[in-house]
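Standup notes
- HV: blocked on the assembly model, inputs below
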Amino acid sequence: MEYFLTEEQKTIKSLARKIAEERVLPVRAELDEKEEFPWAIIRDLADADMFRVFVPEEYEGLGGGCLELCLVVEELSRVCGGVAATYAVNALGSYTLIEYGTEEQKKRYLPDIAAGKKLTAFAISEATAGSDASAIRMTAEKVEGGYRLNGTKQFITNAGEAELYTVIVLTDPSRGARGASAILVEKGTSGFTFGKEEKKMGIRASVTRELIFRNCLVPEENLIGREGMGFIQAMRLFDRSRPGIGAQAVGIAQGALEAAVDYAQQRIQFGQPIISLPVVQDMLAEMAIQVEAARALVYAAARTVDSGARKITEESAMAKVFASDVAMKVTTDAVQVCGGTGYMKDYPVEKMMRDAKITQIYEGANQILRNAIAVELRKRKARTE
Amino acid sequence: MNVVVCLKQVPGTTQVKIDPETNTLIRQGIENIINPFDTYAIEEGVRLRERFGGKVTAISMGPPQAETALKEAISLGADEGILLSDPAFAGADTWATSCTLFMALRKLEKYDLIICGRQTLDGDTGQVGPQLAEMLALPFIAYVSQIEEVADGEMRVRRMVEDGYEIMESSLPTVLTVVKEINTPRLPSLRGIARSKSASIPVWGVEELNADPDKVGLSGSFTRVVRIFSPQRVCRGEIFQGDVEDQVDCLISRLKDDGFL
């Protein structure tokens, strides 16, 4: 399919593929098995300027948008969804700073993020606040010299390894979500520690931990934007980041499709490669259609984000929901095509199936996002009546 | 520290096929790459620049399309590339190639080190490095696996030999050929690729090098390729007849006759 990518976008995509094939592929099974954080790959990605992709040019980035980020994420995910998550979360942890940060904040942090010297993370989820993100309880009390942070964030990707955290906290608990604010916290700040390392079903090369804040004092200048804007900033962030989850899903599905085709071509049963069996052909064709449709929707949503449009909730939700459902379906079918071999850990498709599941869950469970899309439909209908 | 890296563009495969009619390489469908051994030379040059400053100049003799290899070298960290290309350079053997590189190096400004890969993937001779050093009247160390120290116009290196390694010291400038054990070449970077796309690669021919046409290309070569051919693969088999015991007897007596038993 012709997606009319620019020369620069093609370069980004092909270099990301090269890194994935040369540096990720040889170690992906081991990273998955050992749940190891892929530091060596992070260094390779940094050396190849991949962390510059999503950082504006004035802060030593390459000034790419959502589509450029999606291209990198897709190619990494085609080989390993866990490595891709580890990479992509850096964009998630940087967007709020890029969009709402002061010049001073951006100058202080972004060049190191662009160079891959500092990894970032974004923290909103808590034990009581998942799909209902407005139910956060962590507080930031205004005190002499800054904010005093108390509370625990849960399921935070890159926790422990990242140097910089964008944390959504309540600066005014009496106002609920309207009292939320985004605050930057650096690793090593007194009173800021990490909780248990989660053992996960998939994306096991990425790390997921709790952030624990006990009377953690951060200076006032670490507030991003204005007090009370945190929830809105977070929602806007997810509108922009969801096509990236879609890209992760497309990559995982693409990898599974390729593995299934390879296997079907070489597996002989009843005296012929199983790819000559109409039932298998039917499955593979359906998988290919689904993957390409998901890719088209993800790229279109990413371009909508990059167009600067203000209202992008629907488009980005559609891309994320569709692509993640496709990834689950396609990886499940890939295991089916590969049969008993596919079920074994020596073959990559069972990992892809495990990796795919999270894309239906994080950055807005698909049910919540379908609900958000329906809300927009009702609003539009109401406006035209 | 100014480093010159000599590299060659080669077909990206060791499985080259020869057209039986024309006795030439079948290049169709084969991508050209930087000679893999030369990628270690580029990486080492870039690492030295990162440690000591200066610049890395990649230089290659080849047809006009060898420009791609030099641009790739820039995407991998080299600062500049120079292409030695002229119809008169065609058909060069290792001697004529070294001669052409020698003339280019004479034209270059100050350099402290010349690094070559240990050999090429296509020619496999490993002669250009030492010949070049000889022509430049510079010290030469082959099969370098580690640069241990660089200080006060001298360098100490480790070189691979068959049953171990040797540690050698040399004054600078010097010429090295490097082996794959020396480093792991980095991947290109996005900024490097952008730089390589906008980089202009000067082309030096006979005129620019002020070269004696008799010293370059085919006319400067001492060797002549008389014929290129794929060796015939002959597989002779013999099938013994009869029942198993007869066949075994046949086999044993044949092995005895041929002196294997």
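- HV (later): unblocked. Helices of chain B lie at 36-52, 67-75, 94-107, 128-136, 190-198, 206-209, 244-257. The first helix of chain B runs from residue 36 to 52.
- Next: hand off to the docking folks.
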